Amino acid sequence: MMAPMFDPPSAHAFREALRREALALGFAQAGFAAPDDLDPERHFERWIANDRHGAMDYLARGAPRRAAPVDLLPSVRTLLVVAAEYAPAAAADSIAAYARARDYHHEMKRSLDALLDVARALAGPAAAVEGLSCVDTKPLLERAAAARAGLGWIGKNTLLLDEERGPWQMLGVLLLSIELPPDVPAKDRCGTCARCLDACPTNAFVAPYVLDARRCLSYWSIEHRGPWPREFRDALGGRVFGCDDCLIACPFPRRDSAAAGGPSPLLASQPELAALDPREVLRRCEEGFTRHFKRFAIERAGKAGLIRNAITALGNVGDGDDVARLVPYLEHPDRGVRIHAAYALGKLRRFAPAAVNAVLMASRDAEYDGEVRDEIDIALA
Ligand code: B12
Ligand code: SF4
Ligand code: SF4
To answer: Which of 145, 152, 164, 276 is most buried, taking the most CB atoms under 10 A from its CB?
Structure first.
């Protein structure tokens, strides 16, 4: 089928009507790009070839296709890229700021689907507009698409940012079979700044613009299943889900920025996720993981993953009162949880050496997994 064509003035009016609608739906920005090769310099494929994705195999599987929107929708002629702003984090937060809203996948996808309906209504039934909305769920380089569509530039921390909102925005892309005029890409304004690179607690940036996910706390605490290297358990500090340090360090948005409209209603912070510290996370996991976290991005870590994170954080920032809270996790069915529980108790041993030694030794005798026993030995050493 031929892609619906518009003569220039009506294509321009059509594009602006869609942009207005996107802003009315709660997006902070909407831009348009041609669906050409999104990564002509093959950065993504090199990243995969260097194993920087860790165990995120789904990224490797879709590698060449991620730069080719046409593989997702053969009739695609335009990328409509949107950004939803969210409230920035403060340094002390244990839950990454984006995860304190409702799950952005669902919220943004629903609005992108609504935009597709608007595009269909504007074009009329004869145009038979085809579309596909993507919010993380499809193999697509969303940041590259956003940069092409003029939403901002890809910073040294690899995040898409602009001067008014900084990096505090989530992205989504609507592929459309209508040809619309593209926007102009924004210029890179990082200049000589390197604050994000210096702020990373784990030195995860191997170079400006290149992150090794295997060193990123966001990777370990959200994406990874099972236990992690000790180096990253220490670096987690009191965090429980994700990390925002390379966003907090960024000088954008500028304080005097006039254009920023504030967090989108799509990503409004949820009161039930405010003040979630590691103890409260553990309590809610035990009370009902699904009941408490189902509609939120936090669900991605899984129950065992979230427990593993919370007990690790308690090992780092907890005190003597947390010893009793951690002991039952030495018998948890998930071996990653047991390993991190031994680690955390080892760190809290200074508060109650005799009691902690006794439980660790008892649990060492009962433990059948060699790696967990090794971890208990380290904790006892
Ligand atoms: C896998 C993934 C992760 C991984 C890997 C992150 C990474 N930097 O690659 C992990 C789990 C670590 C992660 C962490 C986070 N993520 Co994430 N993640 C993704 C996902 C699903 C794929 C990203 C990807 O393909 N990475 C591989 C790299 C190579 O791809 P890329 O960075 O897009 O590559 C382009 C550029 O970086 C550039 N480039 C790459 N290498 C080089 C080298 C040089 C020299 C140059 C000049 C350029 C360059 O060219 C590439 C093509 O344009 C995207 C959603 C999506 N589909 O895009 C969300 C996404 C990137 N994540 C997001 C968020 C919010 C986060 C966190 C902030 C969450 C948190 N608070 O904990 C952190 C931030 C960490 C960070 N600094 O990136 C948002 C980012 C929004 C934004 N404003 O940019 C996205 C877009 C999700 C969304 N729909 O909004 N994430
Ligand atoms: S999210 Fe945290 S750990 Fe990951 S690159 Fe940014 S500062 Fe480093
Ligand atoms: S902290 Fe500096 S270098 Fe990093 S993304 Fe922000 S402006 Fe760019």
So the answer is: 152
